[in-house]
Amino acid sequence: MTKTLAKKPARSRRGGASSRRQERLFGPVVYRPHATRNIPTYDLLQSDGIEALDDYAMQILETTGIEFRDDVSAEIWSKAGAEVEGHRIRIPRELIRKLISTVPSEFTYHARNPDRTVKVGGRNMIFGPAYGTPNLIDLEGVRRQATVEDMRMIMKIHQVNPAVQYNGGYTLEPMDLDVPIRHLHMVESSFNLTDKPIMGSPQSDYQARDSIDMAKIVFGDEFMDQNVCMAAIFNCNSPLVWDQTQLDSMRVYAANNQTLYLSPFVLFGASTPVHTLASTAQIVAEALAGVAFTQIIRPGCRAVMGVAPMGVYMKTGSPVFGSPEVALMMYAYGQMARYYGIPWRTNGAKTGAKQEDLYAGYDSIMKVYPAILGGCNVLTHCGGTLEGSLCVSMGKLAADGQQLQSFYKMLEGVTTDSMNAMARDLAKVGPGGHFFDEDYTREHLPFLDEIQDNERYDSWVATGSKTVGERGREWCKSMLDRYEQERPTIDIAKQEELRAFVVRRETEIAAGQL
Fold first, then answer.
1. CA-CA to 7 of 20 to 30 Å: which in 232, 250, 317, 431?
2. Which CATH superfamily is domain 107-411 in?
3. Distance between start and end Cα atoms, the chain
């Protein structure tokens, strides 16, 4: 008797590239937690180089000194044991080392939805959106000034954007709101529209206090006192100046145990020497002075060594991005942060380009790669930045997000797990076969960029010859639809209390009660 072998049913490919792309665009959102680094850092310096750079930074603080342009802050330094001459502060290295020793090397950054809470420091890394940008290229491709509704729109996209772990802050600068009250609407919108960790305003003493008070409405006073629920960026004006407005806000955040990103604002060759390691020593000194100051205010409060590095176009003085000198500075700066045991932050996908072109991509990758390989813990400005932070492109925002997800995958590293199963699959497939239909392939798909067009030229033309900006704007529109399907909720009593706070403070600020 002859056996008849039943044919194995063919697996359907279900509609081709176009339908598969649609499935990816409208599938469920996968919210990524903080990335955990399973790849090594790129160490530029040997141990003697680290020690030499540390010595240079300490010499700057001890001999040249740094200005804290505020009488209150100068008095605080005097009581702590620094040499104070007016606003010039000279800090012995022993005092610096003692103060920074209380900075936690790792901390938890809480969201109002505990499922979105992340860890910062150590081997952990988070990505965040653009910040403080007054213009945008909108969903129709038109460049214009940003409004408060644009700010809220982009917060919604970042809520469902798998590439970013925190939201809020001035994701766009709402130019239709008066400066003194912008922070109120920024923080209120952050809490109402997103349940990821958020940022507060660092722009003045009263704006910092308002931000903290609004966070206390959501999290409660006692929880806020012991846990990080808000962060803010504080820029040192290189070379060697911390100004009064930043210091006023720094004291508020530090006293309330919230996270401070202490970040020198660097123009390599203009506000620093044209020497990679001398520049790094300067910005290390500037950041350490800020970090140490926070620990005088409240020992153990969460502080992050930051840097906002740019190059300079020497013909005009304009900032440039993606320069090799800046990349080398970031590698060295990351090593120094690890040497001191302090988390570090820098800015990411920035460019001086005016549209989503080749150089926008080059600049952005040359900024992000050193941050990733240099062990950065917090990468800000990862959301569509053009024109050196003067504009956000919705198309580039989408493309940047895809690149961040690819870096997230890279940070996972490699493992020998499942190697035996792969050997069995290879034996089954044999010479000349393929792996498309294997179970492991379907369960472990490689990274797929939802914005990039990888189809044939004829297919690209047939679907409209769309640019990356056009495809990115389509993605953003789809994410806004997704947001409405997965909109986060907030306790109505807290929402009403936030609204009442904003109304009251708007009235008080208008009356000069800051």
1. 431
2. Trimethylamine methyltransferase-like (3.20.20.480)
3. 96
